[in-house]
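[Automated response] Your request has been received and processed.

Submitted sequence:
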Amino acid sequence: MERVRQIAAHLNPHFAGLLGSMLNTSNASLDRVKYSAAQVDWLDALAQAMQYVKENPTKVCFKTLKVVVMLLPGLVAGPFLHALGFTRLGPAARSLASCVQSFMGNVAGGGIFACLQSAGMSGYGRVVVENGIRVVVFVLPAA
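Generated structure:
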């Protein structure tokens, strides 16, 4: 930490004071966290958590699944898009996507179909679909 202060003072004296203040605040916050963590009876907390899991296995399972899908929506998006027929090479033959495209004709850029196809090809639509999955998962109640 002292070396960081020396470098900051050398680069810009005004910045050194700000950095020193930030480091002091960070150290104080870290000390508070250490103190609070030392006050917790971790074995009792673990026992309470295990008891909650035993009493509510379904709720814990669904909440864990929600967290995983929120962090990794691609685990759902990839299989979902593939099941609809949106693949890396375009709509799969004899799939729902190819059927819809044959009825639509030309696909409008920026439309829902184009976005889903882009997601299937790992383009801009992937972010849209994954965030849509996050919204659905967030809104769903946990069992």
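Summary generated for your ticket: Residues 72-142 form one domain. The chain has a mean pLDDT of 86.
If you did not submit this request, please reply to this message.
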